Amino acid sequence: MGKINNPILLFEKWYDKELNLTKVRIPTAVCLSTIGIDNFPNARFVSFKEIINDSFIITGPLNSRKGIEIKNNSKVSLTFWWTETERQVRIQGIATEIKVELAEKYFDTRNINSKAVSLICEQGKEVDDLKLLEDKIQNRVAENKKIEKPKNWSGFSIKPIRIEFMEFKKTRFHDRKLYELKNDKWNIKQIQP
Known about the structure:
Layout: H1 7-21, E1 29-35, E2 41-52, E3 55-61, H2 65-72, E4 75-82, E5 87-97, H3 100-108, H4 112-120, H5 130-143, E6 153-167, E7 175-182, E8 185-191
Antiparallel strand pairs: 1-2, 1-4, 2-3, 3-6, 4-5, 5-6, 6-7, 7-8
């Protein structure tokens, strides 16, 4: 791993390489971890959108468990695992809700099924009749009308304070570098495998 002083540039370099090599169907998947209302950690895979102003953007319903947990405690982490390059990136940071205009831009890029699910479903809530819910979604899709972004659908911008890069080696002597933001400057430490 060459020395790059800006971890965002290093992330983009690694990410682009993985995207060019990967065969996985959803190469943008990233594990988002939050601190639960019950103080247990919660982790789930979400779709990474892009980097804006050195922050990592994800989207989803604000009234989902992840949305509620982020509003309760904005400290989150992201974990990327890339199979082709055998690299891992772990990010710890502070999440803030993105602007409505940006959320609308992301929502507009979704396919009609995804939009209908976002409009009708309350992500993570218990359901009595799954078939009835599915029919409701399919009927909305069949109407073939524009679906506006629901009020509770948005996203989060995650401003990193720590980013760890790890390159796996066959010898198990993995190359790990930790970038920590202190006084608006990235400090780099080589850490043991």
